[in-house]
UniProtKB/TrEMBL annotation:
HAMAP family reported for this sequence: GARS
Organismal lineage: Bacteria, Pseudomonadati, Bacteroidota, Cytophagia, Cytophagales
EC code: 6.3.4.13
GO molecular function: ligase activity
Catalytic activity: 5-phospho-beta-D-ribosylamine + glycine + ATP = N(1)-(5-phospho-beta-D-ribosyl)glycinamide + ADP + phosphate + H(+)
Pathway given in the UniProt record: Purine metabolism; IMP biosynthesis via de novo pathway; N(1)-(5-phospho-D-ribosyl)glycinamide from 5-phospho-alpha-D-ribose 1-diphosphate: step 2/2
NCBIfam families from the UniProt entry: purD
InterPro entries registered for this protein in UniProt: ATP-grasp, ATP_grasp_subdomain_1, PreATP-grasp_dom_sf, PRibGlycinamid_synth_ATP-grasp, PRibGlycinamide_synth, PRibGlycinamide_synth_C-dom, PRibGlycinamide_synth_C_sf, PRibGlycinamide_synth_N
ATP-grasp domain boundaries: 111-319
Keywords, alphabetical: ATP-binding, Ligase, Nucleotide-binding, Purine biosynthesis
Protein name in the entry: Phosphoribosylamine--glycine ligase
Similarity comment: Belongs to the GARS family.
Length: 429
């Protein structure tokens, strides 16, 4: 098979790493890819949102399967575009339609979907700029802290947790009236703050049947002890000990099944991955958000635990044959630590040469914001640069293996959290 994978982050490197392990893979192209995908696949200098360029490439290279990594092309309607062309109408694509992708593209849309399908989530109201007075009055009636979410895509930065009423009112005005997050905050969802412990549940679906993949917990804050600014993710752990069989049965019954049935009932063409951000509140699951693709860096922790052929799963999703697929999951722990450019998520400098170990004894190095300079040296080219993953029979062993490799990688101003998984180790005790 000739496969085209879209994206350029650590998630896509992990996808590529898993896809090329399949005997069914003839050629794998990654558009646009990064320095890591270039070592195991063929990078293509086409943006994931250049629909015409992608279509021409699909036809030229006789692509048999398209796998969409990031959310932006999905929200912009790539799947509908491919389906609308006679020559690619039947091409299997892993990713939902534009309507299905609105579950991530609009927080208000996804909350209304949950409400219609009786899926447990936090209480909320949505406001537009002309409803600013109603929004401010609503805030006065709520308990604190309170959550404000930009309705649209804001690169993971559009969620604010406000501790005081004054802070919440200022934030609502900035988002709605000053376009703090641009078009993304032309609507704002004001949501009840849920207490508990967060986790991510991943579901593969062909629109008819589904498979629940390994769950994970990610770490969003830049600083140890979950302090500082939010990021795209500083690390991940899978499995998570607080998601036991009883809890996961509740997740499947109350959230996964009603979601899949809701997609079908509302005629959302959905063949792809569904990332369900959950809160475990005293043993009860509540949905925080939907994403319409795999998470990053959770993917780098989840995929190494999948023992069955990943390409076969992708093909089964795209051809509505997922019911036949036998998913095999390793019982081992998998942990991921993300290494970032100093200064991230604020400003940082690019172009620093990266030193990697000649032999990686423990785990895998996934590239994210990497590139090659004119001399061919590997350099940092983004905020989140490298994700290191390792497995182990225990969480302690997996973390030890991961950090051993992390300490063998260096570049100027490199930064990483030193406490990934420590909260789960404390829970176990």
């Amino acid at each position: 098979m000739n496969i085209l994978l879209l994206g350029s982050g650590g998630r896509e490197h992990a996808f590529a790493w898993k896809i090329v392990q399949s005997p069914k893979c003839s050629r794998l192209f990654v558009a646009p890819g990064n320095a890591g995908t270039a070592e195991i696949a063929e990078n293509v200098a086409i943006s994931a949102t250049d629909f015409d360029g992608l279509l021409q490439f699909i036809l030229k290279e006789k692509i048999d399967l398209v796998v969409v990594g990031p959310e932006e092309p999905l929200v912009k309607g790539l799947v509908d575009f491919i389906r609308s062309k006679p020559e690619t109408a039947k091409l299997p694509v892993v990713g939902p339609s534009k309507l299905g992708a609105t579950l991530e593209g609009s927080k208000d849309f996804s909350k209304r979907f949950m409400h219609r399908n009786h899926i447990p989530t936090a209480a909320y109201e949505t406001f537009t700029p002309d409803q600013i007075d109603q929004g401010l009055a609503y805030l006065e009636r709520q308990s604190l802290p309170i959550v404000l979410k930009a309705d649209g895509l804001a690169a993971g930065k559009g969620v604010l947790i406000c501790q005081t009423l004054e802070e919440a009112k200022t934030a609502l005005k900035e988002m709605l009236l000053d376009a703090k997050f641009g078009e993304a905050s032309s609507k704002v969802v004001v949501e009840e703050f849920l207490t508990g412990i967060e986790l991510s549940v991943f579901v593969a679906t062909d629109g008819i049947s589904y498979k629940i993949l390994p769950e994970a917990k990610d770490y969003k804050r830049i600083g140890d002890g979950d302090t500082g600014l939010n990021t795209g993710g500083m690390g991940a752990v899978s499995p998570v000990t607080f998601a036991d069989d009883e809890f996961m049965k509740k997740v499947e019954k109350r959230i996964v099944i009603p979601t899949i049935e809701g997609l079908a009932k509302e005629n959302m063409d959905y063949k792809g991955f569904l990332f369900i951000g959950l809160m475990n509140k005293d043993g009860e699951p509540f949905v925080i958000e939907y994403n319409v693709r795999m998470g990053d860096p959770e993917t780098e922790a989840v995929l190494p635990r999948i023992e069955s052929d990943f390409l076969e799963m992708l093909l089964a999703i795209g051809t509505e044959n997922l019911r036949q697929y036998q998913l095999k999951i390793s019982p081992e722990y998998s942990t991921t630590v993300v290494m970032v450019s100093g200064g991230y998520p604020g400003s940082y400098t690019k172009g620093h040469p990266i030193t990697l170990p000649e032999i990686v004894e423990h785990g895998v190095i996934f590239h994210a914001g990497t590139a090659r300079n004119s001399e061919g040296d590997l350099i940092n080219h983004g905020g989140r640069v490298i994700a290191v993953t390792a497995n182990g029979g225990t969480l302690e062993e997996a973390l030890k293996n991961t950090y051993t490799t992390v300490h063998s990688i260096s570049w100027n101003q490199v930064y990483f959290r030193k406490d990934i998984g420590h909260d789960i180790l404390k829970l176990k005790k």
